[in-house]
Specification:
Blueprint (H helix, E strand, L loop, with lengths): L2 E2 L3 H12 L14 E2 L9 E5 L7 E6 L2 E7 L5 H10 L4 E6 L5 H4 L2 H7 L1 E6 L8 H12 L4 E2 L6 E4 L2 E7 L13 E6 L2 E5 L5 H9 L8 E3 L11 H7 L3 E4 L12 H9 L3 E4 H4 L2 E5 L4 E5 L15
Helix pairs in contact: 2-4, 4-5
């Protein structure tokens, strides 16, 4: 993994984040490489991949700062509300709608009922569905507005650095317009790709950004439209998480994607098999706890380190 000495601005922002927090889209540093630093002994980081069936939702917590990436379907609003309350989350520093399809944006209204928020990110400000309009109405009721981030924007979540990698251009396909985030915490990293498909994966790869990540939230629920060999080689994840519903009508995850993940030696967790999946990082290694007692699915040669 490429490393460099962080800029003075980043060092200052990291120091301030340990004391008070530091953020704002594009407000800290824009970089495609990782900063060489180690979290403080009191720092903590976790990602909750919430089981919302055939939908997506992930809660990221670092040093008491929080970010919700997608919120499942409209019918998942109560589930998201209850999950946030169970975790003691009453304020979300960032809410991210990766794209406006209902299975990603639908339950965010529930999240914004359970918690106030700071910044709400979306790739679009309008979309002709009731689910998206319900989300917008709830954002406005909180006295907020939607922010459309640009590729290269970055911000701190506690002592984790979050970078917006994509989309790198405009697409007609809503899935390809998904916001792509890479989170770096110490020597570990996490890649969230929404429902980005092969075309956007190719463009992102060719843009030259750093994709290598410890954990990949597998794109588009394990659809064959995503997770190409080229993209998996670039990301080189040791672990993958698929958010997917049991016996869903789409046949996700497809056997072709599962085969590619095995070939890439990715140890896999699936919400249809494992329920809620919580990943913890100490800045050097990651560990997982699952809701259901089901072993992780090893890659072809076992866990890759």
């Amino acid at each position: 993994m490429t490393k460099r000495i962080p800029s003075l601005a980043l060092l200052l922002c990291l120091l301030l984040s340990l004391l008070w927090g530091c953020g704002g889209v594009g407000g800290s540093v824009q970089s495609s490489t990782d900063a060489a630093w180690t979290p403080s002994p009191n720092s903590f980081f976790e990602v909750h991949f919430i089981d919302v069936g055939q939908a997506d939702a992930a809660l990221v917590i670092c040093d008491g700062r929080t970010m919700l990436i997608d919120g499942g379907n409209r019918d998942d609003s109560d589930l998201i509300y209850s999950y946030l309350r169970k975790q003691g989350v009453t304020y979300l520093d960032y809410v991210v709608s990766t794209h406006p399809h209902e299975d990603h944006v639908g339950g965010l209204a529930g999240a914004l009922t359970a918690a106030d928020a700071g910044v709400v990110l979306s790739p679009v400000t309008s979309f002709p569905t009731a689910a998206f309009q319900n989300f917008v109405n709830r954002v406005r009721a909180r006295g907020l507005s939607l922010t459309v981030p640009k590729a290269g924007d970055s911000f701190l979540l506690g002592s984790a650095l979050v970078t917006v990698l994509g989309p790198v251009q405009a697409y007609d396909d809503v899935n390809n317009s998904s916001i792509v985030l890479r989170i770096v915490y110490g020597e570990t990293s996490f890649l969230f790709t929404g429902d980005m498909e092969q075309e956007a994966e190719r463009d992102l790869f060719e843009s030259g950004v750093e994709l290598r990540s410890t954990v990949l939230k597998v794109g588009h629920h394990g659809s064959n439209s995503s997770s190409t060999y080229r993209f998996l080689r670039a990301a080189a994840p040791a672990y993958g998480v698929i958010s997917v519903g049991k016996d869903n009508e789409y046949g996700h995850p497809t056997e072709s994607v599962l085969s590619r993940l095995r070939d890439a030696e990715v140890t896999l967790y699936r919400t249809d098999l494992h329920g809620d999946v919580v990943c913890y990082s100490d800045g050097k290694t990651v560990s997982f706890i699952t809701q259901k007692d089901h072993p992780p699915i090893p890659g072809r040669s076992g866990t890759k380190e």
